[in-house]
Specification:
By secondary structure, this protein is mainly beta. The chain has four domains: about 1-115, Sandwich (Immunoglobulin-like); about 125-205, Immunoglobulins (Immunoglobulin-like, Sandwich), CATH 2.60.40.10; about 220-370, Galactose-binding lectin (Jelly Rolls), CATH 2.60.120.430; about 385-535, Lipocalin (Beta Barrel), CATH 2.40.128.280. Helix content is about 5%, strand content about 45%. Strands 25-28-29-32-33-36-37-38 form an eight-stranded antiparallel β-barrel. Strands 15, 16, 17, 19, 22 and 24 form a six-stranded antiparallel beta sheet that branches. The longest helix has 24 residues, at about 1-25.
Length: about 550
């Protein structure tokens, strides 16, 4: 009756699952993707009373129930639902137990285990104790013995430790809180009341450095990242990864670390640690910061970005918890820093701070800023463009009534601004954008102290010195990069300088004509709409 009960219970579970899928999804096609059970194992626990009573606890993945073939003269297998144990009584002898795991679709997998049921005390106990090769402060114990079925290990971290149990010949593992020397006791057990023990003083060691690299960053277009430190990307030049901020007085130190050709930063006894860029960089067009951190003994790391805003140094921190002995990879939204008052247009320093203070070390890799993949360029725009040297190539009109033109450049204006009409706008195939202004361009009164209009040396940030990118989607060109512009530098989507701030992103409506060799751009500045006409040069 017990066998039938388990069988019908399992059948009921299977029918119920299939019925629910039919009701909710309309078919059972998903069943075709289900894989067979896997990772099948079992723990055998024999009572130490000379009765031969063995409790078998199976385990595995994707299993509905098990069929147990006990390896003796039991005529039929016993069915056991997943999560349960089975008890069987053996006489003395050696048996091969066969465990067949069945999934909800009927797919099967199996394993076998040889057991020795003996009412004599275990003999010839041999114990191997090793520090785990990959996990810090983890110890692995293997035991073999005649007349034994299982063994218990008391790892000695606390006086009242519960033992870790394993089958003879398998591994019992334990991870200590601290490295050091511990008394480890191994107890071999069989069906007899008597046991056999082995005790040894064992030194538990700490792995103090990563043994594998952090996951490599994905391939990105150069326009979509700004890298501080990573072998996968092109880093900013001249970064100082160990500036003297007095951290050595806290007992902190620095070393470059090479893991089979993978370069990392090692900060020892981390209190606080600065990273100084060779010059300020605008990262406002990026969306996330990535950093990989490995440690054995730092619980938290504070990651700060530092920039200059209106001659004032502003620092914003983000704190992350660390898991020991593995790589911690963080994708930090840059909005977490912007919300603290940063613009990210003048980043010049980063700072790392450890908890506990100056007591633990970290390994750091892959520090970079990135954004979602943008267009890799547009064949329609790719190339060099100039403003059309003709009357009407630049104008502003009423947004509400486009026929009402407020101002339009005439032929004399074009001639008088020759230093402007030779400026070029370069759209790269890789999504890069450049303003090439030469030695002179047209300046307006808000750009220099003289307050006059005329030709002069280009003035930052509208001098083409900052890196910039572009996207072109659905007739919209978006430039990203502080000071990048098309047409007039003073006009952006918020208004006209100097009445508004310089922005790091400007969008224009674009119309192409003349076989894509003429570009007409439109941008509203809050008072009216500006229009520019540009001509492709490399045709």
């Amino acid at each position: 009756m017990k066998t039938l009960k388990y069988f019908f219970s399992t059948l009921f579970i299977l029918v119920t699952v299939l019925s629910c899928v039919d009701d909710q999804m309309g078919d059972t096609g998903f069943i075709e993707t289900v894989v067979a059970p896997s990772d099948i194992s079992a723990l055998f626990d024999i009572s130490q009373d000379n009765t031969g009573t063995v409790t078998i606890t199976p385990n595995g993945v994707g299993i509905a129930y098990y069929d147990f073939y006990f390896g003796d003269d039991t005529p039929e297998p016993e069915k056991v639902l997943a999560g349960n144990s089975v008890v069987h009584i053996y006489t003395e002898g050696t048996y091969t137990v066969r465990i067949v795991a069945i999934g909800i679709t009927g797919l099967e997998a199996e394993t076998t285990q040889e057991i020795n049921v003996s009412f004599q005390a275990p003999e010839n106990l041999e114990v191997t104790i090793e520090n785990d090769a990959t996990i810090s402060k983890k110890v692995d114990v293997t035991a073999t013995a005649d007349n034994a079925m299982t063994f218990d290990v008391y790892f000695g971290e606390n006086l009242d430790d519960e033992p870790v149990e394993a089958n003879i010949g398998e591994i019992a593992s334990f991870t200590y809180q601290e490295a050091g020397t511990y008394s480890i006791r191994v107890v071999a057990k069989g069906g007899a009341i008597e046991t056999t023990e082995y005790t040894v003083e064992f030194e538990v060691t700490e792995i103090s450095q990563p043994l594998v690299s952090a996951s490599g960053p994905p391939v990105r277009q150069t326009a979509d990242y700004i890298s501080i430190f990573s072998d996968a990307y092109t880093d900013l030049d001249g970064t100082n990864f160990n500036p003297d901020w007095g951290q050595s007085g806290q007992g902190s130190g620095y070393a470059a670390f090479d893991l089979e050709g993978d370069n990392m930063l090692q900060y020892i006894n981390l209190s606080y640690q600065g990273i100084e860029l060779a010059e300020s960089v605008d990262i406002s067009m990026m969306e996330y910061m990535h950093i990989d951190v490995w440690t054995t003994n730092v619980s938290e790391i504070e990651i700060s970005l530092i920039e200059t805003i209106n001659s004032e140094t502003i620092e914003a921190p983000v704190t992350k918890s660390l898991v020991a002995n593995e790589w911690n990879s963080f994708e930090i939204p840059l909005s977490d820093y912007i919300d603290q008052g940063l613009t990210l247009q003048e980043l010049f320093q980063l700072k790392l701070e450890g908890t506990p203070w100056a007591e633990g070390s970290v390994f750091v890799d892959n520090i970079y800023f990135y954004r979602a993949e943008t267009s890799t360029g547009s064949s329609e725009l790719e190339g060099t463009w100039k403003m059309a040297s003709e009357a009407g190539s630049m104008m502003i009109y009423s947004t509400a009534n486009p026929s009402e033109v407020w101002w339009s450049i005439d032929a004399a204006g074009v001639e008088g601004r020759a230093c402007y009409y030779d400026d070029t706008y370069v759209f790269g195939a890789d999504g890069s954008f450049s303003n090439i202004l030469g030695n002179e361009t047209w300046l307006e009164d808000w750009q220099h102290s003289s307050g006059l209009f005329g030709c002069g040396t280009p003035v930052a940030p509208h001098d083409g010195s900052n890196a910039a990118t572009y996207t072109y989607n659905e007739d919209i060109i978006t430039l990203t990069g502080l000071g990048a512009y098309l047409g007039l530098p003073k006009v952006n989507n918020n208004g006209s300088l100097p009445d508004v701030d310089v922005t790091s992103s400007i969008s224009y409506i674009c119309t192409l004509s003349d076989d894509d060799n003429t570009m007409t751009l439109y941008i509203e500045d809050g008072t009216g709409t500006w229009a520019y006409k540009l001509i492709r040069q490399d045709i």
